[in-house]
Design brief:
The N and C termini lie far apart (about 65 Å). The longest helix has 24 residues. The chain has a seven-stranded mixed sheet with strand order 2-8-7-6-5-3-4, sandwiched between helices. The protein is α/β, with parallel strands linked by helices. It is built from twelve helices and 13 strands. The protein is about 40% helix and about 15% strand. α4 packs across α5. It folds into two domains: about 140 residues, Aspartate Aminotransferase, domain 1; about 220 residues, Aspartate Aminotransferase, domain 2, CATH 3.40.640.10.
């Protein structure tokens, strides 16, 4: 019988005891908040999604979902011009990233760039595998020489990058894929807002995996749906380590309807890009540096009324906005990001409130 003096924590695997979990963006309670801290779409999903989910509800919910999400695989294959054998769906693109770590990262470490999606090292930590971090400099250009030298069988590249929003050209991605000895995962959570995407490279490179999510451009963060595109042998491996029913019936129904309504998707994405580009220009007029974004957010280095920039200024504006019930994101743990703020693109009313609050901060300072 377990002694009352022993904590169950002691029986966990040693690497799990040391693990630091992923920290999502702050979720506010109550009304009146402008929540633009987690890159959610400010607009509702296609009306076809709600109709499809309502139709899927009912007696069919007592049955297991299609274990392979075949209808989704076929629709995504048609959209991207690949075979359905090259597609896998999951409970968000995070699920696909987790499967990739399971399949390709254990005896050798996984590589990723800094700054980028902070979930990568968490997934590796859960698996008990090591990581190799390759830092960007302020130019945010891919460090090809450093990446070619790392000892890893899998490399994660977020394009467009998070949190900066910088997109990488297919020419640069091709150069990287050709020089890296292993699987290259191009995490394209924001591809629908970008100038280029890597899906056309799938026909050329068998070691390329492209991941996509429905949480951003499709406006379905609450549905938890994502997919991966890759060589059929890679997909076969991922299917072996995938949970049998990893996408529920409602997500399959809603996701299929969203995929079929590309006209709605493009209209919303174009609207977000127009708003993004407008506010980038507005903040640059204030003398703020802003990375050229190909995503649904802006990564800006604010300056106060005295023209000063730096971590203290970024922290001050972050706290001022939060005090005024506006949530954005601050990343103080990295020298490249500590002077910047990430602002998700909201709707017109939300962005106007952000702009007006920034003007008040400048006057008060």
């Amino acid at each position: 019988m377990m002694s009352l003096t022993n904590s169950p924590f002691e029986y966990a695997l040693p690497h799990i005891q040391k693990l630091r979990g992923y920290t999502p963006g702050f979720q506010p309670k109550g009304d009146g908040w402008v929540k633009i801290n987690t890159n959610e779409n400010p607009y509702p999903p296609s009306p076809a999604v709600e109709a499809a989910i309502k139709e899927a509800m009912g007696d069919a919910l007592r049955l297991y979902p299609d274990p392979r999400s075949d209808a989704l695989r076929e629709e995504a294959a048609k959209l991207h011009g690949v075979s359905s054998e090259q597609v896998i769906f999951g409970n968000g693109s995070d699920d696909i990233l987790n499967l990739l770590v399971r399949a390709f990262a254990q005896e050798s470490p996984a590589g990723y760039l800094l700054p980028s999606y902070s979930l990568y090292p968490v997934l590796c930590g859960i698996q008990g595998t090591g990581t190799v971090e390759v830092p960007f400099d302020r130019s945010m250009k891919l460090p090809f020489d450093a990446l070619a030298k790392i000892e890893a069988k899998i490399l994660f590249v977020t394009s467009p990058n998070a949190p900066t929003g910088v997109g990488f050209s297919n020419a640069d991605l091709s150069r990287l894929i050709e020089t890296f000895e292993g699987i290259v995962v191009v995490d394209e959570a924001y591809a629908d807002f970008a100038e280029e995407n890597a899906t056309e490279l799938l026909a050329k490179y068998r070691n390329l995996v492209v991941t996509r999510t429905f949480s951003k451009s499709y406006g379905l963060a609450g549905l938890r749906l994502g997919y991966g595109l890759a060589d059929k042998d890679v997909i076969s491996l991922l299917d072996r380590v995938r949970d049998s029913y990893n996408v529920n019936r409602l997500s399959q129904a809603g996701g299929l309807a969203a995929l079929k309504d590309q006209r709605y998707l493009k209209a919303v994405a174009e609207k977000i890009c127009r708003t993004r580009d407008y506010y980038r220009a507005e903040w640059e007029k204030l003398g703020w540096f802003c990375y050229p974004s190909q995503s649904n957010f802006l990564f800006v280095e604010p300056r106060n009324a005295a023209g000063e920039a730096g971590p203290k200024v970024a922290q001050e504006l972050f706290e001022y906005l939060k005090a005024n019930k506006i949530l954005i994101r601050y990343f103080p743990s990295n020298p490249l990001t500590e002077s910047f703020l990430r602002i998700s693109v909201g709707d017109e009313d939300q962005m106007l409130r952000v702009s007006e609050t920034i003007q008040k901060w400048l006057k008060n300072a």
